[in-house]
Write a structure and sequence with these properties.
With 494 residues, the chain is mostly beta strands. It has helices spanning 3-13, 32-42, 120-128, 148-151, 272-275, 333-341, and strands at residues 56-58, 62-65, 73-82, 84-85, 88-89, 97-106, 109-116, 157-161, 164-168, 175-177, 184-187, 204-205, 211-217, 220-226, 232-239, 250-251, 255-260, 263-264, 277-278, 284-290, 296-302, 306-315, 321-328, 354-360, 366-370, 374-379, 391-397, 407-412, 418-422, 427-436, 446-454, 459-466, 474-479, 489-493. It contains 6 helices and 34 strands. The strands form 9 sheets. It has a 5-stranded antiparallel beta sheet, with no helix packed on it. A 5-stranded antiparallel beta sheet has the order 2-33-32-31-30, with no helix packed on it.
């Protein structure tokens, strides 16, 4: 690890490059809060974008169906849950303070616990009773300056590591939690040199438990390799175009595969997200690095696009790389997430990603094929991660009732068939993860586990579907007595 190299880059970009400096003009007034409350009365499904008032715990959830005795473990979720303070509402969905949820499944019962991550920012603002710091999509009048450690909202994903649960955010180090109580233990000390380093909320885990990750640092991309206990073993900085937010990447048995979206940081917005500008005239940049040495082995160009999430990647003997990605035409979706916070729910087909299968030949030739339909939050049977997989699961926008996803689907990458289950029109569908059936070995033997928000009753439910009989719908459900704020990513720990 080159400590001097990192510190030089960090100094050149101010901090981790996520939050803009104080040179931006302050917002004059805040109409967002009032417009959201008015919209909520007309469109009650917006309840998913309200703030949670505090920590929660339910000893035994209302259960429907039969939870398999073999399914024992914890399903964790993370997402922004504090959107409002003192009459001020964040202007972007990505800004809210993180809340981690734990559904414990055991002996056919389900219990629930949720706690806000006690980050330095959250603690300081709780004491002050108002927002004190700028966020990625919101400029706070009179905001304090702060390092990434002070601004970290830990609101995007979770990762079980050893005896800890890491709450992740794109712009800074992980925050360690107790995986049972969800109490905040504090920032993870990756190393002295990397205390200010961006650490993406979408790491990839190899079959041996080692962890790879990326982080955007202006015109540098940080590339990490950690052991299974979460200690940094390798670190490199790679020169890249300055594209702003970069959430996900791919891992094969030999390589780290990075796909930079078609964007730059020359927009006119007042916030970091506002500065990220779509560039349909620019191809995406593909970077391949050796996963052990972290050195770049090749680069290629891919047709223009924007993306958040990919499913899986594998590499053939001749160096051909194949992967699937939920591809958008451009980055305008970032503006849509801003509009949602004001209660504006207009949407278009271009706001939705679709599964695209890419093949990258050793000579740089690119082949692609798009699967019909709108899909996001791809998941695979993780036992086949970095290997050739047959199935990819995702949330799908299949009907037109709300702007949110309404279905889950399974795509057979070999045969081309699609199987789906569409929830009722009054459900908002979140990420569903694949959980393998204990003792099984064949790909796809297991369940899909994920949450939906039933907005008429203002209740969130945990759903379990047989991954090989998806169209049959949930085999079991567990109901919360309240709505959980719509979130991003989760993890399963057996």
């Amino acid at each position: 690890m080159d400590r001097r190299q990192f510190l030089t880059a960090a100094a050149a970009t101010g901090t981790a490059g996520l939050i803009p400096g104080r040179a931006f003009a302050q917002i004059a007034g805040d109409p967002i809060n009032g417009s959201f409350e008015a919209a909520l009365k007309e469109r009650p499904w917006l309840v998913g974008l309200q703030s949670a008032e505090g920590d929660r715990e339910v000893g035994s959830l209302q259960v429907e169906g039969r939870w398999p005795a073999a399914l024992r473990g914890s399903f964790f979720r993370n997402g922004p849950a504090k959107h409002d303070r003192a009459g001020m509402r964040y202007h972007h969905w990505f800004d809210g303070d993180g809340m981690v949820h734990r559904y414990r499944i055991e002996d056919g019962t389900v219990s629930y616990r949720a706690r806000f991550v006690r980050s330095p920012k959250f603690v300081a603002e709780e004491q002050a009773g108002r927002f004190l710091y700028d966020a990625g999509g919101t400029r706070i009048p009179g905001a304090r300056g702060g390092s990434t450690a002070e601004l970290n909202v830990a609101n995007t994903s979770v990762l079980p590591v050893g005896d800890s649960l890491w709450a992740l955010w794109e712009g800074g180090s992980p925050t360690a939690l107790d995986p049972v109580t969800l109490e905040t233990r504090g920032p993870v000390d990756l190393s002295d040199a990397l205390k200010r380093a961006p650490f993406s909320a979408h790491p990839r885990v190899g079959s041996d438990g080692r962890i790879w990750n990326i982080g955007m640092l202006g015109s540098k991309l940080a590339l990490y390799r950690l052991n299974a206990r979460g200690r940094v073993e390798g670190f490199k900085l790679i020169d890249v175009p300055e594209v702003g937010m970069m959430h996900d990447f791919f891992l094969t048995e030999r390589s780290v595969v990075i796909l930079l979206p078609s964007a730059d940081m020359k927009g006119s917005g007042e916030s970091f997200f506002g500065m990220q500008r779509s560039r349909r005239d620019l191809p995406m940049q593909l970077i391949v690095a050796d996963r052990e040495t972290l050195t770049v082995t090749r680069r290629a160009e891919v047709p223009s696009g924007y993306w958040f999430h990919g499913g899986n990647a594998w590499e053939e003997r001749d160096g051909t790389i194949r992967f699937d990605v939920c591809l958008l035409p451009d980055a305008t979706i970032m503006n849509r997430f801003r509009a949602f916070m004001a209660g504006e729910t207009r949407h278009a087909a271009s706001d939705y990603a679709g599964t695209t299968l890419f093949t990258i030949r050793p000579d740089g030739r690119v082949e692609s094929r798009r699967v019909a339909g709108h899909a996001e939050f791809p998941a695979i049977d993780r036992r086949f991660g970095t290997l050739r997989n047959r199935y990819v699961y995702s949330a799908e926008k299949h009907q037109g009732h709300t702007p949110w996803y309404d279905s889950v689907r399974r795509v057979d990458l070999e045969g081309g068939s699609v199987e789906r289950f569409t929830y009722a029109a009054d459900h908002l569908v979140e990420e569903h993860l694949f959980v393998p059936r204990p003792g099984s070995t064949r790909e796809g033997q297991g369940w899909l586990l994920g949450t939906t928000l039933h907005w008429p009753s203002r209740r969130t439910m945990l759903n379990l579907l047989d991954a090989e009989r998806l169209a049959d719908g949930p085999v079991a459900r567990a109901w919360l007595p309240m709505p959980a704020p719509l979130g991003f990513h989760g993890a399963w720990a057996a």
